[in-house]
Amino acid sequence: MRKAKTSSLCSCLLGICLFVACTSLPKDVTHVDEQPAIYPDYIGVTIPTGIAPLDFTMADDSVTTIDVEVKGSLGGSLHTNGIYADFEIDVWHELLEQNKGGVLTVTVCAERNGKWKKYQDFPIYVSNDSLGEWGITYRRIAPGYEFYGHMGIYQRELSTFEETALLDNGQLNGQCINCHTANRTNPDMYVFHIRGKHGATVMNRSHDIEKLKATNDTLGITMVYPYWHPNGRYCAFSTNKTSQMFHTANPAKRIEVYDSQSDVFVYDTETQNILCDTLIMKKYWAENTPSFSPDGKWLYFTTALRQIYPTDYDKEKYSLCRVSFDETSGKIGTYVDTLICANKTGKSVTWPRPSYNGRYLMYTQIDYGYFSIWHPEADLWLLDLKTGESRAMDEVNSTRAESFHNWSKNSRWFLFTSRRDDGLYTRIYLASIDGNGKITKPFMLPQRNPKEYYRRLMYSYNTPDFTDRSVNIDKAATYREIESDERTETKMR
Question: Is the pTM of this model over 0.90?
């Protein structure tokens, strides 16, 4: 039974009994001159209204009971006690709405070996900027190497803890389901890839589902790492011949993923044409990870001089470039503009993601290569497209890998994956950014009883993105379509 209550009811109960609450502490309570060590670390984070309750517990497993009171600077309060702070969802949402633009002050008491400690209060800031998204989508996959095993594409409502599976490869004879990519958080326009016996690139445009043949026979390519043009007609892809190897003398790194060949092209969904251009498909260069600008006039991509593999894999360093794109003709421009040059930085750029308001471009920077998830030095960087200046996002970076990221549609929030929790599994974190580029402390995706949840979860979160509504998909029909042999041939132009 949940024990979250309003402060008035809580005060009445505490006045009657000598139960544990920070407003009526046991006589032997010890006041600690430090803030509590809690899991997840929600101390000083900024959150939007409508987010699920920030349930937490003490990081110390020897704590048997935790008592928490939350008071709003603009009014309202709530209280809970138990093995973890379990806030009632509706009461939590009411408190956040009441304190939009204000501060929640959190008081924590903890019992260990029959003795109680009261810690210093800590703040949680409630943003004036709404999230504006219903939830998120992501792939869950075990952090393995050769064998991927069970995986699936899921969606999660951000105001609650409800998670539902969109597709599960257990229903597809264990085939690999690659990442779900929507157009600017639109749940009615998405693409994902199936590898295996019934391989296909599945594209959905307003419930018009098309199954493309996985490989174009003329070019000998597959369609990887998609990014939609904002008008929905075009979708940029890379094509990658990917290999992996294992480190034997570097304890900080387990695996290395590299491409012996990659190019970037644009697919026209109306004509089924693959639009190729030698400007972004150079013979001795590896083009990768494309994305369109929010106005559709620019195609961003990364590129690196191909190396001798696998011996010189660590010499491959990607620069960030862009080229103009004409949506009327479907043609790219004649000049490539280099925004971040690897020869100057000595580093490598991957996963460029422009904000939807056109002000910033977020990317991951690593020492070499592009597959950042296995690079502990991977950090998020922010390029100001107005000034051309780029900086490390120290507010959200850690000593472990920060990787794939995406923006909310209003460009005030972003999410990313990080291995900071335990060094092995990637988890999802969210943070806010204002019009001046000020970034708040990130917070882990809330879960009910988070310590138990994350300790039991044997999967990593992969390629998360926001969705402004729930994704409606007929799973049974989709499974049947994938298992069929009907595929649309792509053509070259």
Answer: yes
